[in-house]
Amino acid sequence: MERYGCRILGAGWPPVTAEQHLIDTFAAANEFVSTLADRLYRTIMPVTEDSVITAYSDDITFWGSHPDLGGVPHALWNIAALQAAEWARKETGITCELDVRKPLV
Asked: Which of 99, 87, 89, 88 is nearest to 55 (CA)?
């Protein structure tokens, strides 16, 4: 099979356990949230008393506002928004308001 560009999994590869898959998945999600939080932080800086970060109550509303992130759960955005707001608060002493968007449906 390898001559056709395919490789049979398990042939010469260490087996992947469910536990390892979960570890890898959570690591990837954590890295994504950190990258998104950094993006949000750079967007809201410099923070003022009127700064607002939008949070979302459902995936459909989130995807409607951010089509480039379609398929990404809104919860990851909300975690990133909280992280960005916390970084801004620590740096400036100003607390950003979180505005939760109502569901579209």
From this structure: 99
